[in-house]
Hints:
This protein is mostly helical. Helix content is 81%, strand content 0%.
Amino acid sequence: MEFLHYLGRLLFGGYFIFNGYNHFTNSKMMIGYAQSKNVPMANIAVPFTGLMLIVGGLTYLFDFHALAGSLILIIFIVPVTFMMHAFWSVEDPNQKMVEMVNFTKNLALLGALILFAVLRYSLGIPL
């Protein structure tokens, strides 16, 4: 069971770390995409949100202040889901499908983050 706990932390935290890292390694593309979605100050928002993803992911990976990490990631995911993946405003059917997949994936991640935060809080595990 302990192995599964570590594996889950590696996969979940690693997902956020990888995507945060991507904000830096592909910053030009990410900034352009954010600008196309009318994100204000995209050149600042992209690296800032990349840092949020990395920090949040590391809290899961190392099981260190994971409740705080959950809050950081929730603060990231909520606006990103509705700003960047607003599938209802996309005309092209293929792009609409891509945005819908990302929107629903983010909702699932949001649900997992909320569930994890509530579970840690209810068990009395400190921030």
